[in-house]
């Protein structure tokens, strides 16, 4: 049992160490939002922490009518990303500009962050810069 607990602790430390280069605040490719990427439960998420249009900007394109009046500030647009080789995958990205969410993968590229959204075999990749 002690070996199991020790193994789990070492795995958590390794996971936390590798994610350090992705954690923090990032400026989206368009420059109109800042997203803070954080770890929770061994998965990465990212929430909006700044908007060019201001903190009162609403989620007007959300397909759920009940959510259209919520403020975008603090909304998780990245969720559930898990480490797989040199990328974080298996999560989702929400695009508040059209109210849709997509499968997602992110990975560091030097001092930049590549953010890729997928629809089937089609994808779009953005480059985010560290804040």
Keywords:
mainly beta; eight-stranded antiparallel beta barrel; 8 strands; globular; disordered N terminus
Describe the structure.
This protein has one helix and eight strands; from the N terminus they run αββββββββ. The protein has one helix at residues 2-19, and strands at 24-27, 33-40, 43-51, 76-84, 87-95, 100-109, 112-119, 122-130. An eight-stranded antiparallel barrel has the order 1-2-3-4-5-6-7-8.
Compute the CA-based radius of gyration: 16 Å
Outline:
globular
Any low-confidence stretches, pLDDT <50, length ≥5?
3-18
Q: Tell me the number of helical segments per DSSP (H or I, 4 or more residues long).
A: 1
Give the strand tally: 8
Oligomer: single chain
Strand order of the largest sheet: 1-2-3-4-5-6-7-8
Roughly what fraction of the amino acids lie in strands? over 45%
